[in-house]
Amino acid sequence: MVDTKQPEALAVIGIFLGVSTLFIVLRICARVISWQNEGRFDTLMMWSDGFLLVAYVLAVGEAYAIIRYTLYTWQGYHVADIPKMSIDDQITGQKYNLANQLLYNPILSLVKMSVVFLLLRIGEAKPAAKKALWFTLVLNMLLAIAIFFADAFQCTPFRYVYDYPAMDLAAQQAAGANSSGQVNGVTIKGGQCINQINFFLISAGLAVGTDLLVLAIPTVIVWDLKMTRRKKIIAAGILSVGAIVTAVSVARLVIYHWRFSAKNKDRSYGLGYTISCVEINLAIATACVPPLKPLVRRIAPKLLGSANRSGPGYRHTPYDNDAQFELGAKMTGWKGSQHRVEAWSSNEQILAEPEKIRRTTNVELTFGEATSSDGKHS
């Protein structure tokens, strides 16, 4: 019996596509619940949802392409066990391989754009964080465009990237090459390509760099919020769950370095090439996590420590709702801004609405008089 890992490779592709599908469905459910509660969609969240849905659709296409590549090129089999493939099958397999390459970076870029728009809504009150997010967004877009076109035109002529079996054969026959495709010890080729190994490794490294930027900013935003340290850590952890994807990205660098190494004489045997599919689907799944709070509160209201505002022991504050805030202002004669104070002022709220986090304004209200944060009377 021939030793093969192809069934395991196909299972990995299917399982991780299923994971991203599940989280996309959960995010849609959460957004429906949020709309039912609020009756409107925030513009930034709509952009975030849109980018993620496009990324998911492309991920489905990427999964199909990598499955077809697996089957056409006998991935998972030892090189010695692969039967001689026809030129047409080789070309078809390489077309699916190119499709996989071209889809990989745009998917990750769209996921990062989705996360950045979510963070823009959270960190809009902090100018430094807002500027950092816009810088990350622009950098991510420019890298996505540059890498896409470099990938698409990595060979000259363009079609040589997938049509090289036929083009090499034609060039060798025209040059009168021997059975090894050589003339005077030089291998004849029908085209030329950039150093593909270095290109893949450099582009993967740049992707990890933007991952780290997206991971660092939420911590800065959350740490500026007026919450206990424990809750800051929890909130930062929820918003930085994408660290899992960064770890997979680093693993992909190591795996691809070995996959394209000259020492690797059995490149088709193994599961390493599926790491791209694992990475993009995990990226989509983790990007869905922060906005799931409305769904979690509907299913398990006590899971994240939601406050029971009508239960015993709850201490009402002037910040519980807009009406009480306005009432407190009227009673004290305070004529400052009546901008809504968010639920972050309550110690019983932990990431109640992740997409609605705002930096708490340092304003103290009393029923005798109102004072600003610097202690001066209004």
From TrEMBL:
Rhodopsin domain residues are: 44-298
Keywords in alphabetical order: Membrane, Transmembrane, Transmembrane helix
What family does this belong to?
Belongs to the SAT4 family.
**What do the Gene Ontology cellular component annotations say?**
membrane
Q: How would you describe this protein's topology in the membrane?
A: Multi-pass membrane protein
Locate the transmembrane regions by residue number.
12-30, 51-71, 102-120, 132-150, 199-221, 233-258, 270-292
* A Pfam family it matches: Fung_rhodopsin
- Specify the superkingdom: Eukaryota
Q: Where is the protein localized? A: Membrane
Query: What organism does this protein naturally occur in?
Result: Oidiodendron maius (strain Zn)
Q: What is this protein called?
A: Rhodopsin domain-containing protein
